[in-house]
Amino acid sequence: MKKTLIICLFFSALILFVSACNQPTEPSYGYAAEEILLEDINTSQDSRNFATSEQESPSVENHPTPSRGKKIIRTGTISIESKDIKSGKKRLDEYVKKFEGYYEQESTKNISDLINYILVVRIPFNHFDAFLSNIENGEDKITQKHVQSQDVSIQYYDTEARLKSKQAALVRYIQLLNQAKNVKDILEIQEQIRLIQEEIDSQESVLRSLKDQIGYSTVSINLFEYQANLSIGSNSFGSKIKDAFSFSLNLLESIFLAFISLWPIWILTTIAIFLFKRYRNKRKNQSEKI
To answer: What is the CA radius of gyration of the chain?
Structure first.
């Protein structure tokens, strides 16, 4: 009896051992991928909490540096009426150079009674107030001014944290790719790497744009001068008469040149008239003789 019981226990253990060995195992990269996704979610949540705490905490300075604290995008719009637009533009050029800025866009218009420059200036964030102050204290008249500050701290820190998380996930997937044993796993991991790389490129583009807007403030300037501020007589009745005479002379000159340019036609016409008259006189003489 004992011998039979021992044999039964032995065969039971053997069956359990064989069934355990035959059970399919999941690829190891699946568990690792889940851990990567969990780390990504936790990192994104931590970034939101950090950005929120940064926004709620009081700022020591009015405009903190972009390297720490709040991330502020500052923009301004200003209209300037100048009595001498050339001198006014020259002063603006000096201010832009003084505060290490540059013109992102520059255009000019000259209509019937108005000359103006449309300018878009990029100024380092720490020189933004000083640049506007120099313009306000200048010789020209400020007709309109608008300054706006936009807090993008949450977006900036969230994008930065997501980028770091995706970069870490990319490294992990590359490690998994090196450990993959079959073609199916390799193709799946490569697809994940491609998707993560696209997200990294997108996040890097957003972060670069934010850094540029934060580091360099944008000022839109409309510098203009009315024709009434120009030299006396530049748009007076006398100048209009002068312009009328100039137009008449130009018109006569054009007509004369056009007449000269048609000289072959005039020569052919003259010859044709001469031959016609000669033919008519000859016919007339013949008819008189008859």
So the answer is: 43
